[in-house]
Amino acid sequence: MELLDLFSWSILIPWILGMLFGVFVGATPGLTATMAVALIVPFSYHLADTRASLALIIGVSFTAIFAGDIPATLLRIPGTPASAAATLDGHAMAKKGKGTLALLIDLFCSSLGGIVGVAMLVFLAPQLARFALKFSSYEYFWLGTLGLGISSMVSGGAIALGWVSAILGLTLSMVGMDIVSGAQRFTFGSTELMNGIEFIPVMIGLFGISEVLRLLSEWQPGVEERQPSKPSETASPGSFFRNDFREMFRALNIIWKKKWNFLRSSLTGSLIGALPGAGADIAAWGAYGAARKFSKKTESFGTGVEDGVVAPTSANNAAVGGAWIPALVFGIPGDAVTAIVLGAFLVYDIRPGPMLFEQDQGQVQGLFWIALITQFFLIPCGYLGVKFFGWILRARKALVIGAVILFSIVGAYSLRNSLFDVWVMLIFGVIGRFMEIRKAPLAPMILGLILGPMIEENLRTGLIKSSGSWAPFFQRPISLFFVLILGLTLVATGISKIRQLNAKSKP
After folding, report:
1. d(C-alpha 122, C-alpha 388), whole Å
2. E-assigned strands of 302-355?
3. What is the pTM of this model?
């Protein structure tokens, strides 16, 4: 893949439009970056150039994470879960009349943090791929199990609910034809289910329709949300951007002064993003906590300090790049967004794994370039998102809900021109809403659906090679290492939960 080819109009147009779509979805409170990617993936299948499809999807994933910080800063309403940490010092700065400065710091930190995350991907992924060439079916089984287990324990909510979600995803992955015998499993006589449950309708249902159901449950017809109407209000974009260029230089100067906080937060975001199931939201909070710990003015956090803006906004976009490391090397997505993109890769006949770096280096380099260039495109696209944020907020909730429903139906149907996929989407929308009400995380289900075939295939292959013996799964050094990591993670998470319960029980 030649670098200059990426700047052809056939690639640039969907690339930029996708990023602007990511800004719209990410900046609309209640809509998530995961939903933005899930909605856009079906449309990418209709582009003639695979590079354009990849640029479209990658552009949306990075931009939507940043855009969620806009309402978090101006209205104290996080646009995406990864933006929750931005509601603290970012919104406090906005209340002091520094909303422009806070958002520009946010924008530049998101772009620069994304560059750090992509750099980690570029340097670490090939090295890990060489190491992964030593893996056999035993190591891949435990690697998949480790990714699914960590996702179940760190995705939020009760650990038991995380495991239930993961098991449900594994069960869904077994629907269709048995990979060894060819027998039908869980098809209930349906010919549509013989090839398994399509990935995209499930994703759209879980993250699109479930959000619609949530918005409908909270919507009171005739009672519109509070909108920024006066220029004097904190949330009015017009009052923020009269001296934009001067504020841009000021923001860059602040980032330079806070460079060690920025670097620490970006690296923290990249590393946390590489953990399966952790995601940008955990990365943002982790970086914010680290910045507060290393600060000499701990008590000032939450009152509008610049360090409190730099840390989470650098980490959340860096986490997106970090999540690509296990996805490309091992085929294990780091978060829900990457899981959706990984499913799309399989449709494009891109098979993540160590052999991808050996057999298709041009494709890998193309992905690296797209991810890197996206960070530079983020600045103008994100700036436009900030300028038009007032229009996005003024959109009536009915219009937003209608647009999401339309995108969801068209996206699910266009995959195979099948109404069955639309029904699958609707069913999983209800399932997703029920799980959210019960505080059950959705990420483990997604990873279970993605990793299920990998776990099952390597388990059965390993048992066939060992004549049914489980001993090799525990005797090989790398396999044993993965088992120990899984066990330690389970113990550490359990201890953390016990401490939280004890802290809540104290008067």
Report:
1. 34
2. none
3. 0.68
Contacts of 35 (CB under 8 A, 6+ apart): 25, 207, 208, 211, 404
| Position 110, amino acid | S
Burial code (b: 16+ CB inside 10 Å, e: under 16) for 360-394 equals: eeebbebbbbbbbbbbebbbebbbebbebbbebbe
Q: What stretches in the chain show pLDDT beneath 70?
A: 1-2, 29-31, 75, 77-82, 84, 151, 153-157, 219-243, 276-279, 334-335, 390-397, 400, 411, 414-415, 443, 497, 500-501, 504-507
Contacts for 2 with CB less than 8 Å, ≥ 6 apart? none
C-alpha span between 45 and 344 (Å, rounded): 9
**Per DSSP, what are the bridge partners of residue 185?**
176
Dist CA 283 CA 273 (whole Å):
6
Distance CA 335, CA 284 (A): 14
Report pLDDT digits (tens) over 414-464: 667 788 888 988 999 899 889 888 888 776 787 788 778 888 888 888 888
